[in-house]
Amino acid sequence: MHAYLENADPILVLKSKVYFGFQARRMKELQNAQTHLSRYRPANYGTITSVLMHMLRHILHSPVAKTGYLRDALRDLHFYKVMDGFGTFFMHDLDLENAVLLGIIDEEDGDECLLAMSRDKSLRRIRERRLVDTEVVANEEPTAQFPIGNAPTWEEITLTMARDPKLLISEWAWNDKWASASTAGRLFMQFTTDYFLTLSIDALKESQLPKPKDLKGAMELWTMRSLMSLLKDVSFKPSNHGLLGNVSGRRNVGFKDMVQIFFPDPEFNIRKHSVWHPFLIKGYIREFHETLYSMTEKESSSLLLALARIFGRIQCLPNAVACTQKSCGRLWEQFEGGVRMLTNPTFYKIEMVGKAKRTGTARGKQVKAGRAIIEARLDEHHRHIPFNEGRLKARQAKKARNRETKRRSGKKNNYRKPPVRKQKSPVQSSEESSSSESSADEVPKSSDENAPDIPSVRVLRRRVLRRRVISEEEQEEEEKEEEEEEERDQMEEEEEEEEQMEDDYEMQEVDELDNSGMDVDEEDEDME
């Protein structure tokens, strides 16, 4: 029978009821899966939706994947390889309970996918809308899942990372699906080995440098526990990449994007005096460039994508800096005599960053009593006026001030009549003024050739020059007066604010005395 099937190449005949019934059931289940995922909307909801729609179109015909994010997802899921072997495709790794598609598919939607799945063409508005849809309720109480709360402040995250990072970072776990004899895994192993060779022996607890044998060992070396057991003095630094909530300041680069720092393109200029230059001459960067030269453009993009996935799954990385034309770059960040590592925020035991708690500045108590209280006490002591009457006068004065404040509008208070500006006369240039002064000394000629010279014209010109000089001085005096008037207005406003604050404080003391129920007459009656 086996030889017959191989040689005869028979055609399998099915009833139309069975075939179309299977296709209808398949379409219905794909719709149910899409409806179920729409309730949770994971971070890669757009990518999963594109895969489900592609499978839905495959029921009737064989569509072509035209978008880049869909082609990458199908390649990660080995879609065409499964289709060639079985003629159909099933998503066995789709976890509907947790709304997660297991495997090596991207955990977040890319920019191309976000723009394609939304009517809005602004990435900023799309991401803001997603944050609103996935709003998390802050809970400050620590739990087993969130030891410092699900929404700690950034200060609490930084402090916990410095004192007890194990409390904030979850354990790293290896997935057997990551194991593959790929070029990306081999390059990452060589990168890990070469990078640890740059450490000084004084920074290590043991003199022997680590040399991983497989991809699992190389990724495990970048975990928090492994680094703490390997290095003498190591600290950890939090990263705000991709965190929700109140994150201020500049965003850090994600671990996937840090591939460009550790695996630069061949076109990137690595200077001779750079710290990265030894890797280019006889290290992993040289082998990486040679591998890229032997690949096609599609294969090289797949290699970079695989490396980005590996970097996205490790727990810590050195806070390295690429070299520039002016700087040689940095391999390890030295902090307080040790090494400080950058941590991956995907391993944090939090859901979002909470708002910073406002700590109000406590106002110091004034030693001197208010003016109304002092006058009331003096009236009682010297003029035998009861203290209650003095407080009543203070309240009446306060009410009168409030009525006066309401009567005056803000427009009237802020109005200031500007000074009348005099018309500015045209100012001559230095050359014209010098020529006019020189010509003023000479006796001008009369327009009439027969008439004698007229000295009165010279006197007239001198008067015009004097008027121009006087007008300039008047203009400077006006500007000085305006500046002085503005300073006086500002000083008056500050004095009014200080008086208002003093009155408020006095009335506060009066109200406190009223509330306390201290009445002088009642006290005298009790004493009697």
Task: Give a description of the structure.
This protein is 52% helix and 4% strand. The chain is mainly alpha-helical and 528 residues long. Strands 3, 4, 5 and 6 form a four-stranded mixed β-sheet that branches. It has a two-stranded antiparallel sheet with strand order 1-2. Mean pLDDT is 77; it is low at 436-457 and 517-528.
Mind describing the biggest β-sheet? Answer: 4 strands, mixed
Overall 3D form: elongated
Computed over alpha carbons, the radius of gyration is 41 Å
How many strands appear in the DSSP assignment? Answer: 6
Distance between the termini: 125 Å
Count of helix runs: 21
Give, in order, the helices and strands: HHHHHEEHHHHHHEHHHHEEEHHHHHH
Mean pLDDT: 77
Strand content: under 5%
Structural class, by secondary structure, is mainly alpha
Record the SSE blueprint.
Layout: H1 2-8, H2 16-40, H3 45-57, H4 68-76, H5 79-86, E1 94-95, E2 100-101, H6 111-116, H7 123-133, H8 154-163, H9 183-196, H10 215-220, H11 224-230, E3 234-237, H12 259-262, H13 277-282, H14 284-293, H15 297-313, E4 316-318, E5 333-335, E6 338-343, H16 371-382, H17 387-407, H18 410-414, H19 430-441, H20 456-516, H21 520-527
Parallel strand pairs: 3-6
Antiparallel strand pairs: 1-2, 4-6, 5-6
Helix pairs in contact: 2-3, 3-4, 9-14, 9-15, 16-17, 19-20
